[in-house]
Amino acid sequence: MSTDPSLYTIPEPELLGRLASSAGGLSAEQAEKALREAGPNTVAAGARTSVVTDLLHRCRNPLVIQLLVMAGLFYWTGDRVSAGIVGAMVVLSVFLSFFQETRSSRAVEKLQKMVKTTVTVVRDNKEVDIQLEEVAPGDVVVLAAGSLIPADLRILSAKDFFVSQSALTGESMPVEKGADSNQPAGRVPFEFTNACFMGSNVLSGSARAMVLSTGANTFFGSLAEKMLSKRDPTSFDKGISSFTWLMIRFMVVMVLFVFLVLGLRDHNWLEAMLYGLSIAAGLTPEMLPMIMTVCLSKGALMMSRKKVIVKHLHAIQNFGAMDVLCTDKTGTLTQDHVVLERYVDVTNRTSEDVLRYAYMNSFYQTGLRNLLDRAILSHSDLDVERNCRKVDEIPFDFKRRRMSVVIDYEDRHVLICKGAVEEVISVCENYQVDDDINPLIQLIRDDLLDEYRTLSSQGYRVLAIAYREFDRSKPVFAVADESELILLGYIAFFDPPKDTSARAIAALGRSGVAVKILTGDNELVTRKVCGDVGMVITKMVTGPQLAGLDEAAFVKEVTESNVLARLTPDQKEKVIKSLRSQGHVVGFMGDGINDVLAMKAADVGISVDTAVDVAKESADIILLEKSLLVLEDGIIEGRKVFGNIIKYIKMGASSNYGNMFSMVGSVFLLPANFLAMLPTQLLVNNLLYDFSQVGIPLDNVDPEYLERPRRWNIKSIQKFMFYIGPISSIFDYATFFLMLYVFGCVAVGKPGTSEAASAHLQDLFHTAWFVESLVTQTLIVHVIRSLKIPFIQSWASKTMTLSTAIIITVGIWLPFSPFAKYIHLIPLPPVFFLWLILFAFLYCTLTHIVKSWFYRRFGTD
Question: Which of 139, 328, 481, 521 is catalytic?
Answer without folding.
Answer: 328
